[in-house]
Amino acid sequence: MKDLAALENWLRCIEARLAQEKDDLNALDAAIGDADHGSNLFRGFHKVWEKLEATPPADLPALFKLVGMTLIGTVGGASGPLYGTFFLEAGKTLPAGSQTLDDAGLAAALAAGLAGLQRLGKAEKGDKTMVDALLPAIDTLQSNADLQKAAEAARQGLAATIPLIARKGRASYLGERSRGHADPGAASASLILECLAGDDTS
Ligand code: ADP
Ligand code: MG
Ligand code: MG
Protein backbone atom coordinates (compact mmCIF):
# COMPACT_ATOMS: atom_id res chain seq x y z
CA MET A 1 0.00 0.00 0.00
CA LYS A 2 1.31 3.43 -0.99
CA ASP A 3 -0.24 6.75 0.00
CA LEU A 4 0.54 10.23 -1.30
CA ALA A 5 3.29 10.77 1.27
CA ALA A 6 4.96 7.45 0.40
CA LEU A 7 4.93 8.28 -3.31
CA GLU A 8 6.34 11.75 -2.63
CA ASN A 9 9.10 10.03 -0.65
CA TRP A 10 9.71 7.81 -3.66
CA LEU A 11 10.28 10.89 -5.82
CA ARG A 12 12.49 12.54 -3.19
CA CYS A 13 14.57 9.36 -3.01
CA ILE A 14 15.01 9.42 -6.79
CA GLU A 15 16.11 13.06 -6.68
CA ALA A 16 18.55 12.45 -3.83
CA ARG A 17 20.08 9.37 -5.44
CA LEU A 18 20.41 11.13 -8.79
CA ALA A 19 22.22 13.99 -7.03
CA GLN A 20 24.71 11.39 -5.75
CA GLU A 21 24.89 9.17 -8.82
CA LYS A 22 24.39 11.44 -11.81
CA ASP A 23 28.08 11.39 -12.66
CA ASP A 24 28.03 7.57 -12.67
CA LEU A 25 25.03 7.59 -15.02
CA ASN A 26 26.77 10.14 -17.22
CA ALA A 27 29.82 7.86 -17.30
CA LEU A 28 27.68 4.90 -18.43
CA ASP A 29 26.21 7.14 -21.12
CA ALA A 30 29.70 8.35 -22.11
CA ALA A 31 30.58 4.77 -23.06
CA ILE A 32 27.68 4.22 -25.47
CA GLY A 33 25.98 7.62 -25.86
CA ASP A 34 26.59 11.30 -25.19
CA ALA A 35 27.35 11.40 -21.45
CA ASP A 36 24.25 13.28 -20.37
CA HIS A 37 21.79 10.72 -18.97
CA GLY A 38 22.49 11.47 -15.30
CA SER A 39 22.45 15.23 -15.80
CA ASN A 40 19.25 15.02 -17.87
CA LEU A 41 17.38 13.04 -15.25
CA PHE A 42 18.72 14.98 -12.29
CA ARG A 43 17.53 18.21 -13.89
CA GLY A 44 14.04 16.71 -14.30
CA PHE A 45 13.67 15.10 -10.90
CA HIS A 46 15.14 18.15 -9.17
CA LYS A 47 12.41 20.23 -10.83
CA VAL A 48 9.85 17.66 -9.66
CA TRP A 49 11.20 18.02 -6.13
CA GLU A 50 10.93 21.84 -6.33
CA LYS A 51 7.34 21.62 -7.52
CA LEU A 52 6.40 19.16 -4.77
CA GLU A 53 7.83 21.53 -2.19
CA ALA A 54 6.04 24.55 -3.65
CA THR A 55 2.60 23.06 -4.29
CA PRO A 56 1.95 19.55 -2.97
CA PRO A 57 -0.49 17.74 -5.29
CA ALA A 58 -3.94 17.01 -3.88
CA ASP A 59 -4.31 13.44 -5.09
CA LEU A 60 -2.41 10.63 -6.79
CA PRO A 61 -3.44 11.42 -10.38
CA ALA A 62 -2.22 15.01 -9.86
CA LEU A 63 1.09 13.73 -8.49
CA PHE A 64 1.75 11.44 -11.47
CA LYS A 65 0.68 14.16 -13.92
CA LEU A 66 3.03 16.65 -12.28
CA VAL A 67 5.92 14.20 -12.59
CA GLY A 68 5.16 13.26 -16.20
CA MET A 69 4.70 16.82 -17.43
CA THR A 70 7.79 18.03 -15.58
CA LEU A 71 9.99 15.27 -16.99
CA ILE A 72 8.74 15.90 -20.52
CA GLY A 73 9.34 19.61 -20.07
CA THR A 74 12.78 19.54 -18.49
CA VAL A 75 14.70 16.30 -19.11
CA GLY A 76 15.11 16.42 -22.86
CA GLY A 77 16.92 13.69 -24.78
CA ALA A 78 15.33 10.33 -25.43
CA SER A 79 14.68 9.60 -21.79
CA GLY A 80 12.56 12.70 -20.99
CA PRO A 81 9.57 11.86 -23.17
CA LEU A 82 9.91 8.15 -22.32
CA TYR A 83 9.94 8.51 -18.54
CA GLY A 84 7.43 11.38 -18.81
CA THR A 85 5.02 9.15 -20.72
CA PHE A 86 5.61 6.38 -18.18
CA PHE A 87 4.38 8.60 -15.31
CA LEU A 88 1.55 10.19 -17.32
CA GLU A 89 0.15 6.84 -18.45
CA ALA A 90 0.54 5.33 -14.97
CA GLY A 91 -1.41 8.26 -13.52
CA LYS A 92 -4.26 7.84 -16.00
CA THR A 93 -5.16 4.50 -14.39
CA LEU A 94 -5.87 6.17 -11.02
CA PRO A 95 -9.33 7.45 -10.05
CA ALA A 96 -9.68 11.21 -9.52
CA GLY A 97 -9.29 12.08 -5.87
CA SER A 98 -7.54 8.84 -4.95
CA GLN A 99 -5.09 9.04 -2.06
CA THR A 100 -3.84 5.47 -1.79
CA LEU A 101 -2.71 2.68 -4.09
CA ASP A 102 -2.91 -0.94 -3.09
CA ASP A 103 -0.38 -3.47 -4.41
CA ALA A 104 -2.50 -4.50 -7.38
CA GLY A 105 -3.25 -0.87 -8.25
CA LEU A 106 0.41 0.06 -8.11
CA ALA A 107 1.38 -2.87 -10.34
CA ALA A 108 -1.39 -2.04 -12.81
CA ALA A 109 -0.42 1.64 -12.91
CA LEU A 110 3.24 0.86 -13.56
CA ALA A 111 2.28 -1.70 -16.22
CA ALA A 112 0.18 0.95 -17.98
CA GLY A 113 3.11 3.35 -17.72
CA LEU A 114 5.44 0.82 -19.30
CA ALA A 115 2.94 0.07 -22.08
CA GLY A 116 2.84 3.79 -22.90
CA LEU A 117 6.62 4.04 -22.81
CA GLN A 118 6.90 1.08 -25.20
CA ARG A 119 4.25 2.48 -27.55
CA LEU A 120 6.34 5.63 -27.79
CA GLY A 121 9.83 4.14 -27.95
CA LYS A 122 9.08 0.83 -29.67
CA ALA A 123 11.73 -0.95 -27.60
CA GLU A 124 11.24 -4.60 -26.74
CA LYS A 125 13.02 -6.69 -24.15
CA GLY A 126 16.62 -7.27 -25.25
CA ASP A 127 17.03 -4.00 -27.17
CA LYS A 128 19.36 -2.73 -24.40
CA THR A 129 17.19 0.06 -23.00
CA MET A 130 15.39 1.04 -19.81
CA VAL A 131 12.73 -1.48 -20.83
CA ASP A 132 15.15 -4.29 -19.93
CA ALA A 133 15.02 -3.22 -16.28
CA LEU A 134 11.41 -1.99 -16.13
CA LEU A 135 9.79 -5.01 -17.77
CA PRO A 136 11.07 -7.78 -15.46
CA ALA A 137 10.50 -5.55 -12.43
CA ILE A 138 6.90 -4.77 -13.31
CA ASP A 139 6.23 -8.39 -14.32
CA THR A 140 7.52 -9.43 -10.91
CA LEU A 141 5.36 -6.85 -9.18
CA GLN A 142 2.28 -8.03 -11.04
CA SER A 143 2.87 -11.67 -10.21
CA ASN A 144 3.77 -11.37 -6.53
CA ALA A 145 3.42 -7.79 -5.27
CA ASP A 146 6.87 -7.75 -3.70
CA LEU A 147 8.74 -4.49 -4.25
CA GLN A 148 12.06 -5.88 -3.03
CA LYS A 149 11.84 -8.69 -5.57
CA ALA A 150 10.82 -6.19 -8.25
CA ALA A 151 13.88 -4.05 -7.50
CA GLU A 152 16.05 -7.16 -7.63
CA ALA A 153 14.54 -8.08 -11.01
CA ALA A 154 15.38 -4.57 -12.26
CA ARG A 155 18.99 -4.95 -11.08
CA GLN A 156 19.23 -8.29 -12.87
CA GLY A 157 17.69 -6.73 -15.99
CA LEU A 158 20.31 -3.98 -15.82
CA ALA A 159 23.15 -6.49 -15.53
CA ALA A 160 21.70 -8.46 -18.44
CA THR A 161 22.05 -5.39 -20.72
CA ILE A 162 25.86 -5.56 -20.58
CA PRO A 163 26.40 -8.20 -23.30
CA LEU A 164 23.59 -6.92 -25.52
CA ILE A 165 23.88 -4.95 -28.75
CA ALA A 166 21.78 -1.77 -28.56
CA ARG A 167 18.92 -1.65 -31.02
CA LYS A 168 17.28 1.62 -29.93
CA GLY A 169 18.46 5.14 -29.20
CA ARG A 170 21.89 6.65 -29.62
CA ALA A 171 23.73 3.53 -28.47
CA SER A 172 22.33 1.67 -31.49
CA TYR A 173 24.59 3.78 -33.74
CA LEU A 174 27.54 1.88 -32.23
CA GLY A 175 26.31 -1.56 -33.27
CA GLU A 176 28.72 -4.26 -32.01
CA ARG A 177 30.68 -1.64 -30.06
CA SER A 178 27.73 -1.18 -27.70
CA ARG A 179 28.44 -4.65 -26.27
CA GLY A 180 30.18 -4.87 -22.91
CA HIS A 181 28.56 -1.78 -21.36
CA ALA A 182 25.51 -1.47 -19.13
CA ASP A 183 22.68 0.62 -20.53
CA PRO A 184 22.36 3.96 -18.69
CA GLY A 185 18.55 4.00 -18.95
CA ALA A 186 18.37 0.51 -17.46
CA ALA A 187 20.58 1.80 -14.62
CA SER A 188 18.27 4.76 -13.92
CA ALA A 189 15.23 2.47 -14.12
CA SER A 190 16.83 0.21 -11.54
CA LEU A 191 17.47 3.23 -9.28
CA ILE A 192 13.80 4.24 -9.63
CA LEU A 193 12.64 0.74 -8.62
CA GLU A 194 15.07 0.62 -5.70
CA CYS A 195 13.61 3.87 -4.39
CA LEU A 196 10.09 2.48 -4.71
CA ALA A 197 11.14 -0.58 -2.69
CA GLY A 198 13.14 1.47 -0.22
CA ASP A 199 10.33 2.84 1.92
CA ASP A 200 8.05 -0.14 1.48
CA THR A 201 5.97 -0.63 4.58
CA SER A 202 3.64 -3.36 3.34
P1 ADP B 1 19.88 10.77 -25.23
O1 ADP B 1 20.26 9.41 -25.76
O2 ADP B 1 18.95 11.50 -26.12
O3 ADP B 1 21.08 11.56 -24.81
P2 ADP B 1 19.47 9.98 -22.47
O4 ADP B 1 20.95 9.85 -22.42
O5 ADP B 1 18.84 10.80 -21.40
O6 ADP B 1 18.99 10.49 -23.89
O7 ADP B 1 18.80 8.54 -22.35
C1 ADP B 1 19.40 7.42 -22.95
C2 ADP B 1 18.63 6.17 -22.53
O8 ADP B 1 17.32 6.21 -23.08
C3 ADP B 1 19.21 4.89 -23.08
O9 ADP B 1 20.21 4.39 -22.21
C4 ADP B 1 18.02 3.95 -23.16
O10 ADP B 1 17.84 3.22 -21.96
C5 ADP B 1 16.87 4.90 -23.31
N1 ADP B 1 16.28 4.84 -24.65
C6 ADP B 1 16.72 5.43 -25.77
N2 ADP B 1 15.89 5.18 -26.80
C7 ADP B 1 14.91 4.38 -26.30
C8 ADP B 1 13.71 3.78 -26.83
N3 ADP B 1 13.37 3.95 -28.11
N4 ADP B 1 12.93 3.06 -26.00
C9 ADP B 1 13.27 2.90 -24.69
N5 ADP B 1 14.34 3.45 -24.14
C10 ADP B 1 15.15 4.18 -24.92
MG1 MG C 1 22.47 10.64 -23.50
MG1 MG D 1 21.58 13.58 -25.10
Cα-to-Cα separation, first versus last residue:
6 Å
Number of separate strands: 2
Identify the CATH class: Mainly Alpha
What letter string, H or E per element, gives the SSE order? EHHHHEHHHH
Indicate the proportion of strand residues. under 5%
Overall average residue pLDDT: 97
CATH superfamily: DhaL domain
Tell me about the biggest sheet? 2 strands, antiparallel
**Distinct ligand kinds:** adenosine-5'-diphosphate, magnesium ion
Q: What is the approximate shape?
A: globular
Low-pLDDT stretches are none
The CATH architecture term is Alpha Horseshoe
Helix content: 55-70%
| Rg of Cα set | 16 Å
CATH topology description: Serine Threonine Protein Phosphatase 5, Tetratricopeptide repeat
Sheet with the most strands: spatial strand order = 1-2
What can you see in these coordinates?
By secondary structure, the chain is mainly alpha-helical. The chain has one domain: Alpha Horseshoe (Serine Threonine Protein Phosphatase 5, Tetratricopeptide repeat), CATH 1.25.40.340. Helices cover 68% and strands 2% of the residues. It has helices at 4-32, 37-54, 60-74, 79-92, 103-121, 131-144, 147-160, 184-198; strands at 2-3, 100-101. A two-stranded antiparallel ribbon has the order 1-2. Helix 1 (4-32) packs antiparallel against helix 8. The model has no long low-confidence stretch (mean pLDDT 97). The chain binds adenosine-5'-diphosphate and magnesium ion (2 copies). Residues 34, 36, 77 line the site of one magnesium ion (MG).
